Amino acid sequence: MYQARDLMAMDKDSFSDPYAIVSFLHQSQKTVVIKNTLNPTWDQTLIFYEIEIFGDPQNVSDSPPNIVVEIYDHDTYGADEFMGRCICKPSLTRSPRLSWHPVIKANRNVGELLAAFELIQREKVSSPSCFQCWLLPSGSLRTQQDPTFAWC
Ligand SMILES: [Ca+2]
């Protein structure tokens, strides 16, 4: 999660205090809050652990689950406000480049997110039927499975 730009102003001072919640399957993580900006730079790598993906590894590889990034404005008083959402695909190539993703709210484009999402599959030496997958920067995936399925 590198940065976002051209986000909406949610506060009276014409700025926002943006942070992002990154969700992959049943897990989610937050970035830090960047105060008083519409162009936050988080520069954070979020790693997810212990995520299981069931299914044929080839299918998962061909069509990996989406990553959902939701951006919120932090408020000291009251509930944080939703600023927009990105639906992203993880890359299965190593060290994917950062790319811009549209931030959408109510069918409107409300900024862009610069991020890279990596899903790494690794076979465990101890058990040929088990793989480990990492999703970066939004997270790492790892799981052990029966021989039927070889993902995470
Ligand atoms: Ca705020």
CATH architecture: Sandwich
Structural class: mainly beta
Shape: elongated
| Heteromolecules bound | calcium ion
As a whole number of angstroms, the C-alpha radius of gyration is 17 Å
Residue share in helix = under 10%
CATH secondary-structure class: Mainly Beta
Specify the oligomeric state: single chain
Strand content: 35-45%
CATH topology: Immunoglobulin-like
Provide mean pLDDT, rounded: 83
> What is the first-to-last residue Cα distance?
22 Å
CATH superfamily: C2 domain
**Helix-strand sequence:** EEEHEEEEEEE
Strand order of the largest sheet: 3-2-4-5
Number of strands: 10
What count of helical segments does DSSP give?
1
Q: Any low-confidence stretches, pLDDT <50, length ≥5?
A: 124-152
Compute the number of structural domains: 1
Largest sheet: 4 strands, antiparallel
